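Ticket #4471: structure export looks truncated?
Reporter: QA, pipeline team
Priority: medium

Steps to reproduce: submit the single chain below to the structure queue and open the exported record.
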Amino acid sequence: MSRFAPDLAAADIAPVILAAPAWARIDITVRDPRLRARAAETLARTILEELDRDSPGRDANQLSLAL
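Actual output as written to the record:
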């Protein structure tokens, strides 16, 4: 994980997992592979959305470079 987000720690992700829907946190442990996969996808989506929300937005005062 440090390769992609060097300033991200497990302590940053844990609250996001706890904020995920309860059914996803419970279903990640069931035997049915379809439910487990759906729960894992929901947990991953929740983490990505929260991390994306915390990322700095685009500054309107910064000029974009033409490539």
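Status: closed, not a bug. The export was complete when the record was re-opened. Leaving a note from the reviewer for reference: The CA atoms of residues 1 and 26 lie 24 Å apart.
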